[in-house]
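Input/output pair, single chain:
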Amino acid sequence: MSENPAIDPFDPTFVKGLDHHIMQDITDHYFRPMMVGFEKLPKEGPSLLTANHSGNAFPFDGMIFDLMLWRKEGYRKQGKVRGVFEKQLSVTWWMRLYGINNFWRRAGGIDLTFENFDTLLAQKRRLLYFPEGVPGIGKGFNNRYKLQRFSTSFVILSARHHVPVYPVYIINAEWSIPFSYTFAPVDRIMQKTLGVPFLPLPAAILGMIFPFAWYFSLPVRMVYVLGDPIDTRSLLEAAGGDPDNPSREAARSAADTIRADMQKELTRLVDLHGKRPFGVRHFFKSMLRSRKRWFRALPITWPFAIVGFERDLERGPTRSLWHRFYRDWDVLAFYLPFGWPLVNLLRHLRKPPCGLRGLSNKQKRVHQGQYHWHLKTHPLPHSETQIRAEENSHMELGH
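Output:
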């Protein structure tokens, strides 16, 4: 047996089923995303999609985008653009959608570390990356459409592996929580006292009182625009750096150049697509077209629908609407004032697939995904692109 077994927590059956049974109504009739310019994106890797964040605590902007990309690929497992995300999303249970076990990795995400990033680009994969990092999630509505400082890692690694960077501009998602404001002094206090990077006000207060509100979003019409590819090697050379081994100064200069160019284009696209973020008329027409399914698209139904679907994968479907509420009674805690302690308590009191009772501490960590996934010790299986590249390399060596 290999010392470093290949694993892939990505569960296509879960994601495809979630889309067909639940997210299709939410995506198509509530958020109504529009994809612009994605005919330019190559069907096969390597490529690095680099997107701005919307500045809201829960990243619905990235979730909807990731799902739309996979739909365009016809739900092919090997066609999945893999998102690299901050590991806090997996190890912190309330940062997973309604606390669903290992949600982000099951949806195709991979822990973001420099080594993981390097490995994935070396394997010629297609990746989705948010260079603003955590500050992009927590910049607040008062800083909407203002790109935060970019990390330099994507510049260094895309140049090293000759991977084109495709900028992605996400518009209107800021308005999903327009009552989320952040203030630097408050954020510093939270970082020092609780280790929380930001505290959006008053949205966070509402989310602390009602767990349901933490995952809430208004019906914004999200627009995703793909820009022209960026050659990071040329940018590093222009900054006086070696593309294969750039200095910190050259990498910072290139990252700042990309950020400045993306900021100009984002501002232009906001003027073009962001004047009516809710598209109220379009929203009501879309809900009318959904006929009797319109209620399933509303946020009030999301906890029962999403959590119930995930549990049904192990226990079988419900017999009626009453049966759904009866056997998922613990989900009601998401709607209760100050319900967070009760949500957490019920997670530990109920047996799988509804909870964690009966599992050892190690089993709980694995089941929930509360671990750091390092590709060096647990690599991904080879992608189709990587297999073909290796076959071509062997053929060239044979000649």
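The radius of gyration is 22 Å. Residues 12-180+218-398 form one domain.
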